[in-house]
């Protein structure tokens, strides 16, 4: 999209680096992608608790919540999902500029949409976590009863049933929630972040 020539960037007196120095940690995005019921929200909250308890500033952006406010005009068509992910990418960018850790938990089923979000950030600022769990187990968990509705034909365009999920090819981290406990999943993510000297 062309940038309007009448809109001129304004610089801020306090930089991202100033804010990171004040917070005593780097700012970045942890992007959790996976099927409904794979464990994104559970991992996002457990990570947020870890950060909170260890003096790091983070905040969770969760699809179910963002879709009740900022993105309440969006549904589940491919175009609406793309716009949903784009907006969350932009919000995460603001968080990173504000010196915070953004924990985004969205199905984000399309590879192309995730690549577009990744491109908004520098290499170390975007950590994609593929929350991998077989569809059969997600459906068995069915924490919100949505798979049952999708199978009954009461819910259209449901990811994994009547709408695609394109698996991550080279995520920074993959968490098999059918094999690891929540605590083990969190430890794997924390170890990665420490290894990259991000926290
Ligand atoms: N048709 C359909 N397909 C998938 N999910 C549906 C649908 N309808 C409602 N829900 C509920 O919306 C949550 C997914 O929202 P997201 O913003 O993460 O979706 S997406 O990234 O735009 O694909 C999803 O949350 P999670 O179960 O946490 O993934 C569901 O609770
Ligand atoms: N290892 C695990 N990691 C994450 N969630 C798990 C795990 N094992 C079981 N669960 C359960 O699976 C369900 C996942 O639901 P949720 O976190 O809402 O998934 P999503 O946000 O991807 O839809 C929860 O009831 C959670 O307790």
TrEMBL record:
Binding site for ATP: 34-41
Highest taxon of source: Bacteria
Sorted UniProt keywords: ATP-binding, Kinase, Nucleotide-binding, Phosphoprotein, Transferase
InterPro entries listed in its UniProt record: APS, APS_kinase_dom, P-loop_NTPase, Sulf_AdTrans/APS_kinase
Residue ranges of domain APS kinase in the record: 26-175
Enzyme Commission identifier(s): 2.7.1.25
Record field: catalytic activity: adenosine 5'-phosphosulfate + ATP = 3'-phosphoadenylyl sulfate + ADP + H(+)
Pfam family, one: APS_kinase
Annotated metabolic or biological route of this protein: Sulfur metabolism; hydrogen sulfide biosynthesis; sulfite from sulfate: step 2/3
Positions of the catalytic residues: 108 (phosphoserine intermediate)
GO molecular function: adenylylsulfate kinase activity
Protein's job: Catalyzes the synthesis of activated sulfate.
Record family assignment: Belongs to the APS kinase family.
HAMAP family: Adenylyl_sulf_kinase (MF_00065)
Protein name: Adenylyl-sulfate kinase
Species for this entry: Cohnella yongneupensis
